[in-house]
Amino acid sequence: MKHYPAEFKADAVALYRSRPGATINSVATDLGVDTETLRNWIRVADGRRSGTSA
Questions:
Q1: Residue 19 included in any domain
Q2: Which 3 state secondary structure label does DSSP give 26?
Q3: pLDDT confidence of residue 53
Q4: What are the DSSP calls for 27-48, one per residue?
Q5: Is the dihedral of CA 25, 5, 43, 20 positive or negative?
Q6: How much helix, strand and coil, in percent to the nearest 5, is found in the chain?
Q7: Based on the number of CB atoms within 10 Å of its own CB, is 18 exposed (0-12), middle (13-18) or buried (19 or more)?
Q8: Of the candidates 1, 14, 41, 45, which lies 20 to 30 Å from 23 by C-alpha distance?
Q9: According to the UniProt entry, where is the signal peptide (predicted)?
Q10: pTM of the model
């Protein structure tokens, strides 16, 4: 399992949020990370833990 620095994760989430209409898949592909990895980073940034409903 690859580990990413916290700054990279925060930048990835910010990039996703700065692209209106972008999909998680498209941003993840651009960054070279797995779609579910980016999805989890977004959940964490939103204060939600992976696997829990809001």
A1: yes
A2: helix
A3: 56
A4: HHHHHT--HHHHHHHHHHHTT-
A5: negative
A6: 55, 0, 45
A7: exposed
A8: 1
A9: none
A10: 0.83
For residue 17, tell me if it sits in a domain: yes
Long-range pairs, 31-34, Cβ under 8 A, ≥24: 33/4
8-19 pLDDT, tens per residue? 999 999 999 999
Q: Cα separation of 42 and 2, whole Å?
A: 17
Which CATH number characterizes residue 28's domain? 1.10.10.60
Find out whether 15 and 31 touch, Cβ atoms under 8 Å. yes
Tokens describing residue 26: 């498209």
Query: What is the span of the domain harbouring residue 21?
Result: 6-45
Domain count, the chain: 1
Query: In whole angstroms, what is the distance from residue 20 CA to residue 8 CA?
Result: 20
